[in-house]
Write a structure and sequence with these properties.
The protein is an alpha+beta fold. It folds into 3 domains: 2-33 and 195-280 and 438-475; 40-185, no CATH class; 287-415, no CATH class. The protein has helices at 2-32, 40-45, 59-66, 109-122, 181-188, 191-194, 199-202, 205-232, 247-272, 287-293, 355-365, 417-431, 435-438, 441-475; strands at residues 73-79, 82-88, 93-97, 131-136, 153-157, 165-169, 175-179, 235-237, 240-242, 315-321, 324-332, 335-340, 343-348, 373-374, 392-397, 400-405, 411-415. A hairpin with a 2-residue loop joins strand 12 (335-340) and strand 13 (343-348). The protein is globular. The model has no long low-confidence stretch (mean pLDDT 92).
Length: 476
């Protein structure tokens, strides 16, 4: 048995030592430089006030014009070519001009370029030499599935000092992503390496999922076998731990013993990042719950009068929540007004859904639901509203918890016992986001960098040993 473990660990180690080193090194980079995205603050800063005088059709008419029978959300924003309704169904998006109901999808590069320039100006960026780079379904920074409803995307280079590139949805004409030269550079040695994320592989999600899941599983087995061998081969000299090996093998053994707990938990939790419902639940509503949460609303409940707020707004959104239609007007990132469409007397003073609203929905989602409570910070199972400072409500319905954004009614996460366990087995072990460490971010930074550096050094000893093994095998 032991000889089989030695043989299996040896050749798995040879095969995966470079991969281990890559994961540890890129993990340090990822901790400080996340994958490029357009934050809500950046998106909102790029919005112009809605020109209400140009809005000549109601949201109900816009939904009809979009031809999305399952529409559950609609937003009104201002583009360079006028106000536009963005209608969202469960799987598709549609854009309609608010002036006459015409299709507002973007096919012209000139329109996309004008949208990008206006967005850049409002964010204080320099768009003077902006130019179209491509119109394509995928590139390295737009491969995530969240962009599927927006493809193909227009990619524009602003030509500014930061090397900013902006992506425009051809479906809605919205800015959906931005990157800078620095972000792109660091992510080539960060997320792209860590997630094994080259475009040619990642664009086929199912293939990428199987490949990375399999590699991570084999890496976990290699680490486990190494831990078993490392413990079995411990020698004691008095009270000191010793090793029967010499040279690089001794370094590999001793550093491995010091890093065993971290390496095992980190590689195992990294494998769980690719779980995607295989062992744990996904934290998403069941199909039946999703139908209840976003039941098709009565779009005619909204009227033109509701489109005339007293002060300028940058975005108006209508959303279905528990079979009712709500409208929220957003004049600034951190403020909004919220009303139930057709019931202007029931404006929410705080600009968010009330406990009663949440309770009405959760009573339809599940049985035995208690009174919803506002999620406190910090929390063992954190969730954040799309609007800074807005509450997230948690409703406990027996063993299932629902976290709901008080600002826009989104169900942020569905936490059953399996999902709550996954939070600790994956997120806590892989990113060290334990509440006590999140309260001390500098200490957490030091631990993550230090442990990953230890794992990197351990991997380098494995690379040296593996190279020597291969050289001796093929030159003998």
């Amino acid at each position: 048995m032991m000889s089989a473990i030695v043989l299996l660990h040896r050749w798995l180690g040879v095969a995966f030592c470079l991969l281990f080193a890559m994961w540890f090194a890129s993990g340090i980079v990822m901790h400080f430089v996340p994958f490029p995205s357009l934050t809500e603050a950046e998106r909102f800063a790029g919005l112009a006030p809605v020109d209400r005088a140009e809005v000549r059709i109601t949201v109900a008419e816009a939904v009809t014009a979009s031809k999305l029978p399952d529409a559950t959300r609609a937003r009104l924003i201002q583009r360079g070519d006028g106000p536009v309704y963005i209608v969202s169904g469960r799987s598709q998006l549609g854009a309609v001009h608010a002036s006459d109901g015409r299709d507002a999808s973007v096919t012209s590069a000139d329109i996309a370029l004008a949208i990008a320039r206006a967005h850049a100006v409002r964010r204080g960026l320099d768009p003077a030499p902006a130019a179209i780079l491509a119109r394509a379904d995928y590139d390295q920074w737009s491969v995530p599935n969240g962009f599927d409803r927006h493809r193909p995307l227009f990619r524009m280079a602003l030509g500014d000092a930061a090397g900013t590139e902006i992506y425009i949805s051809s479906r809605t004409g919205e800015v959906v992503l931005d990157t800078t030269r620095s972000e792109r550079g660091w992510n080539w040695v960060g997320s792209v390496l860590h997630w094994i994320y080259p475009t040619v592989l990642r664009r086929n999600w199912a293939l990428w999922d199987r490949v990375v899941w399999t590699l991570s599983l084999l890496a976990s087995i290699a680490a486990l076998l190494g831990a078993v061998l490392g413990i079995v081969r411990i020698r004691m000299r008095g009270r000191a731990i010793s090793t029967p090996y010499r040279g690089w093998h001794a370094l590999h053994h001793l550093i491995g013993l010091a890093a065993t707990l971290f390496v095992l938990t980190w590689i195992f939790s990294g494998w769980l990042s690719m779980d995607h419902g295989r062992l744990f639940s996904r934290g998403q509503l069941t199909p039946a719950e999703a139908r209840v949460a976003a039941a098709a609303p009565d779009w005619t409940a909204s009227s033109r009068d509701q489109l005339r707020p007293a002060s300028p707004v940058r975005e108006v959104e209508w959303f279905a929540f528990g079979g009712n239609l709500y409208r929220r007007d957003r004049p600034a990132l951190g403020s909004q007004t919220l009303v139930r469409a057709g019931d202007t007397s029931r404006a929410e003073q705080a600009g968010v859904l009330s406990v009663r609203d949440i309770q009405e929905l959760t009573a339809r989602l599940a049985a035995n639901c208690g009174m919803p409570s506002v999620l406190a910070e910090p929390d063992d199972y954190p969730a954040q509203s799309v609007v800074p400072g807005a509450p997230v409500y948690r409703a406990r319905c027996g063993e299932v918890w629902f976290d709901i954004d008080g600002a826009d009614g989104s169900v942020l996460q569905r936490l059953d016992a399996s999902r709550r366990a996954y939070r600790w087995f994956y997120s806590a072990l892989h990113t060290l986001d334990f509440p006590v460490l999140m309260a001390h971010p500098r200490l957490r930074d030091i631990l993550i960098v230090g442990l990953c550096a230890l794992g990197l050094v351990f991997s380098v000893t494995g690379i040296v040993i593996g190279w020597r093994r291969l050289r001796s095998t093929f030159t003998a």
